[in-house]
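Morning F.,

Quick status update on the modeling queue. The single chain you submitted on Monday has been processed. Sequence for confirmation:
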Amino acid sequence: MRKAFFFILALGLLGGTVQAERIKDLANVQGVRSNQLLGYGLVVGLNGTGDKVGSSPFAEQSLRSMLTQLGIVVPPGTKINPKNVAAVTVHAELPPFVKPGQRIDVTVSSIGDAKSLRGGSLLMTPLKGIDGKVYAIAQGNLVVGGLSAEGADGSRVTINIPSSGRIPDGATVERTVATSFASNPTLTLTLKDGDFTTVSRVVKAINDTIGPGTARALDMASVQVNAPADIGQRVTFMSMIENIEVEPAQAVARVIVNSRTGTVVINQAVRVAPAAVSHGSMTVTISEAPQASQPNPLGGGQTVVVPNSQVDVTENGRRMFKFAPGVTLDEVVRAVNEVGAGPSDLVAILEALKQAGALKADLVVI
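Structure tokens below.
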């Protein structure tokens, strides 16, 4: 219990001082982004761990279609056993400015009931974008980190996920994605975390470094920058912009509570107004000590067991503490630690402080 609170305290102390960050860490260039690619293919060469007959009809259909395209005629009604073949989806990210002939990594995942893709090879698979056009072709041997083994009696051991793998440099780019980086007269920087103060500081830093009028704020998350028309100069210009250091604004005071795991995170901006907190804890202990009742030897009675219950109620008196004006995260966590409160106690205290108007922060429960 106490380790969790000290971990929260350490996070707050480390984040107490805001340090300058490069613009490239604070913002992205609008239009310069990666694109997702998706394809469907077949993995062959499996050691009997592929899709089962009948349970994955699309694997059998794909195998039959592939053989037909290769000039092999499969007689109608012939059953194909795809136990060494698995139907898979292939997905990848196409980085910005990538050119035809360059290679990218791909991830392969089974969509049937294949037990493992270990040892398999992906056959030529076109990867399409959201517009339906083919942007890359994937093919190669899979690297699978998972392992599955099964005994004759049905016992089975699985390590990691054997039904998914990767192919480093497994796809060749066939088409490039057009961007507005070279065509627009201006470039727009989009902050990863929108904030009016941070935007103002970014605009000031750019104008102080490059020259007045170079940048202007569009909203709390966007900065428009006048860029050179020549593409070579524009690249050099953006290299200068992204290395300018800016001190971001302090984050909004916020307390995050994970109701499923009991994790509580408090940032360094949290403050507590003057308040007194009394968090009582009562413990009820019930113990059973049955006793045997012996009758008088001449009475003719029977021996019986008489229940004997003892109920003890104890209350911990070390549950009262007071917050002075302007209390910081350090003092809040230290006070809770000193009374020995657990995560659930901390959540209850924070909720009560918020309802009383003493907690100067957003309380977010996820």
